[in-house]
Design a protein that fits this description.
single chain, 548 residues, alpha+beta, Beta-lactamase Inhibitory Protein, Chain:B, domain 1, 3 domains, seven-stranded antiparallel β-sheet, 28 strands
Length: 548
């Protein structure tokens, strides 16, 4: 009997709820994700991510319950991808409209938001290595200060689960109705019931709202990364505007986006080459996880954007979630900012993405096991130039090189102009690009792996051609024919004569050392000295090796 009463009560509640729902009107739209997913799909420039927000405006009179899209069936009887929704344009209010920016490919033309000029900011020296550390520091929820501003940017699942309650009534408020409204943090309060409210005041409607923590105390909750759902931190947007508007940067990824809708959030994936010099044209709000939308323009007039995380305040993601798929949604994963001074000439930019090979054995830096260390790179090692970064107040450039065989990354500071090599007092020949590198893979890429290894180590092995011997040990000091066999002679620094013999096909048949008269005399003297010292206790040979 008790179970029957409970069941009837549940049915009554459901009927009351269903009766209060508004009937949605029919409209077609192209359905897809409404924000960057953890594994974004990469397409070419002709593929469009067809999406549109399903948000009622702030003036909507419909219920706060979410409108769930329903599949429609066309006359053919086959299921269709067309969905039925309530067509309401997103709300635009004077207080927050400047945060909504678009690339110029959609109509109306993108509104470029110019931040207030700050002479101090423009003139201050910004080191590229610590730009993010100095200006965009992470703060956990425990360290939030009253007055911090956020914008409500609901994501897909926020249509079904409401975040905020009206402080006056205690009733839940639809996230859709609060979309693009600005919330100002007002601290938290512990209730006698044990629940915790995180309080906000809305700048737009002047009402007070709260988010109730799902469990635990504030101190337990605030150290985590969960934060408050739907809120994109506007402090990062404002700071980025202050520092980056109209500044030049380098792109660090090929994958960006272009807007396809003025009122909605539709976009398409586009690809542009890495290391393009671009100018920041507009900065607005992106998503909760990647709150800063940066629109840039290249020298050909193309505009594209990236939503990026900067301080990661309230982004709702752990650091390990910014992996390979999401790396481009970090600021440093998409852009390189060097104080706006990107003095890379067109001549130097032409080396980007080119294949080169080392013509000499050279020291470079390489990252391994999380550390950058100096390594000796042998001759004829092939690389692709991934990046060229100017070093501030210096004629040097840092090359980022990717080895063609192993894909390992190396770094080398170089001079591109020979006159700089002559004019800088401490400059060395090994700093000059033209001395270190030859263009293309070089002749070495046509050889076998064993031969390449020998050439890089300066050794001669049987089967090498004359050209390969020249690459390995250079020109001989003498070429002779001994008993019908062609020989190339090399004088080594240790006094040993390297003799390379070739067969009738022009391949190395034998290579080995031959002692000269001077070498034999030296060796005899060393042996006699060792014998005389042998009977002395604790005596040592010339190389300081103890004699037993």
């Amino acid at each position: 009997m008790k179970r029957t009463i409970i069941l009837l009560g549940m049915i009554s509640v459901f009927c009351v709820w269903a009766k209060g729902q508004t009937q949605p009107q029919n409209r077609t739209y192209n359905e897809t994700e409404l924000w960057p997913s953890s594994s974004p799909q990469t397409t070419n420039t002709s593929t469009e991510s067809k999406e549109q927000e399903l948000w009622p405006s702030s003036s909507s009179t419909s219920s706060s319950s979410p409108v769930v899209p329903q599949k429609t069936v066309p006359s053919s009887g086959q299921p269709s991808l067309v969905t039925a929704v309530t067509p309401v344009a997103p709300a635009k209010t004077p207080s927050n409209s400047s945060y909504i920016v678009k690339t110029k490919g959609v109509q109306p033309v993108v509104k470029v938001v110019k931040a207030a000029a700050s002479s101090q900011t423009k003139e201050e020296e910004v080191e590229s290595g610590d730009f993010m550390t100095k200006n965009f520091r992470y703060q956990s929820m425990c360290d939030w200060k009253e007055g911090m501003r956020f914008m409500v940017v609901p994501e897909k699942y926020d249509m079904l689960v409401n975040t905020f309650c009206d402080a006056a009534t205690g009733k839940e408020v639809s996230s859709n109705r609060l979309r693009h409204k600005i919330m100002v943090y007002k601290g938290h309060e512990d209730l006698t019931s044990g629940r915790v409210h995180v309080n906000f005041t809305c700048e737009d409607d002047k009402k007070n709202y709260y988010y109730e923590l799902p469990n635990g105390t504030f101190d337990d909750y605030c150290f985590g990364k969960l934060g408050v759902p739907t809120l994109a931190y506007l402090g990062d947007v404002d700071k980025a505007r202050e520092l980056l508007m109209n500044q030049t940067m380098l792109t660090r990824t090929e994958f960006f986006r272009e807007d396809t809708e003025w009122e909605g959030d539709g976009f398409k994936e586009v690809r542009y080459p890495k290391n393009k010099i671009v100018t920041v044209k507009a900065i607005g709000v992106g998503t909760r996880s990647f709150p800063v939308k940066i629109i840039v323009e290249d020298d050909e007039g193309n505009q594209f954007y990236q939503n990026v995380a900067m301080s990661k305040i309230n982004c709702g993601m752990r650091d390990d979630e910014f992996g390979v798929d999401n790396e481009k949604f970090l600021f440093q994963g998409s852009f390189e900012y060097n104080g706006g001074k990107m003095s890379v000439s067109s001549d130097i930019k032409s080396y980007l993405n080119q294949t080169v090979h080392t013509t000499v054995s050279i020291s470079m830096s390489s990252k391994g096991s999380g550390k950058v260390r100096d390594v000796k790179v042998p001759r004829f090692t092939g690389f692709i130039i991934d990046e060229i970064n100017p070093i501030k107040d210096s004629p040097y450039y840092t090359l980022t090189l990717r080895e063609t065989d192993t894909r390992r990354i190396y770094y080398k500071d170089v001079l591109f102009k020979e006159e700089d090599l002559m004019s800088i007092r401490d400059a060395k020949e090994d700093d000059y690009f033209g001395h270190i590198f030859g263009m293309g893979e070089g002749a070495l890429h046509k050889t076998s792996l064993e031969t390449r290894t020998a050439i890089r180590e300066g050794r001669v092995i049987p089967g090498m051609s004359e050209d390969e011997v020249l690459m390995a040990v250079g020109e001989p000091f003498q070429k002779v024919t001994n008993k019908g066999v062609r020989e190339w002679l090399y004088q080594r620094s240790n006094g040993v004569l390297l003799v390379v013999q070739f067969n009738s096909k022009g391949k190395v048949s034998k290579a080995g050392g031959r002692a000269t008269k001077a070498t034999k005399t030296k060796a005899s003297t060393a042996v006699n000295t060792a014998k005389k010292s042998d009977d002395k206790a604790g005596a040592t040979m010339k190389n300081a090796t103890p004699v037993e």
